[in-house]
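Subject: sequence -> structure tokens, single chain

Hey, anyone have a minute? Need the predicted structure for the following. Not urgent.
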Amino acid sequence: GGRAAHESCQSSIQKNEEFILQLRQENKFLHKQLAEAKAGDEEILRRAFQDRGSEKHAFRDMSARDAMEKLDWMVLSKKKRLNAMKHTTQAYQQRLDELKMGRNLS
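Reply:
Had a minute. Here:
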């Protein structure tokens, strides 16, 4: 009774210690991978913004994915603005053409 229970507990303790060691090794490996990924993101962002000092600071603490999402949003926003400006310019040009034609008719 008592001896078998003691041996069972010792066996469980040993298995748990081995499992803890395995988890520590996996954790160390994952930390290393994360550090390498962050370093890679920093390098990507450094290269992308090397000639754009003021913008570099806005993206400094972001991952490459977050920076890309923000840049995509900024590009989309600027495209919308550009399209609105093109529309306004076309409307002004059309009005100008109408005025010119009106002047030529009289």
